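Hey, resending since the last one bounced:
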Amino acid sequence: MDILYYKMKRTADLLEIRSGLLNWRFKNNGLLHSVAVRESGGVETVIVREGACGIRLTLADGRICVPDAAAFPEYSSRQIVPFLASSGVAPHLPLGVQFVSSPLAHPPSPGVNDRWLRPQARIFRVFSMERDVTFLHSGNCGGIFTSTGAPAASLLMLSACRNRALLVVGCFGKEDRERAVIGVDWEKCGFDPAGKNIYRLAPGPDAPDKVEKITGARRFECHFAGYPAMAFLISSDPFDCTGWECPYPALGKEAAAYLAWLETQRARRFDSPPGKERYLSVCLDNSICTSLEDDNFFDLFDNTLELGIFTPRGGFTVLGELTRSGLTAPGGTSGSNRLMPGDTSPPVALHELLPPGRHRLAVRTIHMREPFYSFITLKLFFSPDGPAECIEFCNELEPDRAYLNWETVLL
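The structure tokens again:
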């Protein structure tokens, strides 16, 4: 297990963070991600551990602090990588099920939802066992970094004795192949790269790749091919590549079984055979609700379930609301007919609502007029009395935490 120790301190010019309050925060398309470690009587040591279950933050007194964005499908996707890379937030790996068929249901073991996080964990490993690391990044200082080309942000980690530096660059471009050139004002950083070894570290989601030794510490050329982050190590000592080039852990039996189940869910969503009739109902699991207090119970499930169709331009048109009495007009959900845990809605005939053709549909959960966690299980039928195909919420298959989506082909 690799351990990275560091202390943080806020200074007047925000160029160094060594102790006290660690609070990284960013927002992207509604995704809010933050970590806060409170100061208690002076300098507080934070430990970053990388192991079989990913990376987590541990305080000196043993308390654990992890980022809070794992309940969003985006956290396990490519989209999150540049935010983690350029802000110094260590990735973590959520495992296990809190609520079935919801964004709070995660794989049972590593190897599934950490594909995009493993390279970033490998990058942080480079600074294992360092103490009193200085963090400089595009969000907490000015005049340190320059950037041309693709939109990118940078993080610079400096060792206490200033014999090593790790420059991490995250690319926010949308193309598969992006290029950026990063410059660093080493004099402002208090670091001298002259005479030091420089290595380009470009891990991918499937393999860590080879380490490349380069020259020149003024301009760093970044080629983001397949992964939106990379790093450069500047070190007085040669870099031992043994640990870096080790393959990622092999897929375990539990992860393989989960992937097989995931493929079944994918087929039910997008490869279901066409038919003249198609019926839909939704149900809410009741297995965990006995452990909830009344205020939590009603707050979590005081929701409106909107049945809708995606338009060719990506919009969402609401067809009606699913309730205990069936499909009602928009705005028709009330306290008496609202679906609650243990309920199943009456079947809705989709072929009576839609013309022949392929349609991409979803049930969107609304809570206090805003999109909210989906807690439903979808049941699809070819006839009202026939067997059902159950579709559960999967972070790997959903575009958003509030939508349970699928496709239906009507003849």
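Confidence is low (pLDDT under 50) at residues 1-69.

Sorry for the duplicate.
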